[in-house]
Design brief:
Length: 215
Amino acid sequence: MPVSQEYMDRLTHETLIRSASGYASREKIGSRAMLITPAQLVEEPLELNEALPEGRIEYTSDIRQVGPLSLAGRAELIVEHRGPKEFVEDIRLRAHFDGHFEALCARCLDPVQVPLKGDFDLIFRPENVDAETGEHAITEDETEIGYYEKSGLLLEDAVREQVLLALPGRTLCQEDCKGLCQQCGANRNSAPCACESRPSDARWNALAGLAAHKA
Ligand SMILES: [Zn+2]
Ligand SMILES: [Zn+2]
């Protein structure tokens, strides 16, 4: 019997879990990351129409991107005048993202598909600029402020943060996921394991209650 793709996926998934107690990082944000610098934006805003490939951004150990993440928006330069000769070059990044993610069920650790889309509007200041002056020249309440390093703003860093903010705090494969058996580790959604037929013991019940509470 040929091995099904589903089985292979599952196997790969479990191998990844075991290898690093979470999704193994396939690739860190590397040389292909997109750096946005104020100099690039002096003439005109930078229009963004990107398809960030799977693996470009490393999220957390239990979240991975599936397929490309589309990103459409623009980066523009905002110059803050803080004195006659003092100005600060901010980068405003506005974008819409749309993609698919896979998160692990909080109870049984099965992968769960999470479609995700969102919008953000952020202002990034050069790192340390506020530490020196302690001033806040921009008062737009609805715009969040971040900071970029001397070299510039890494688009992937900004997107990573926004994706993590947009994801639900806890993912379940189904509302009444039965989770893993506390004794044998079997996934109790697939089949009842032998442990369940044992006479119940008050101490185990207390433990199970505790575990259910935690999950
Ligand atoms: Zn589950
Ligand atoms: Zn069991």
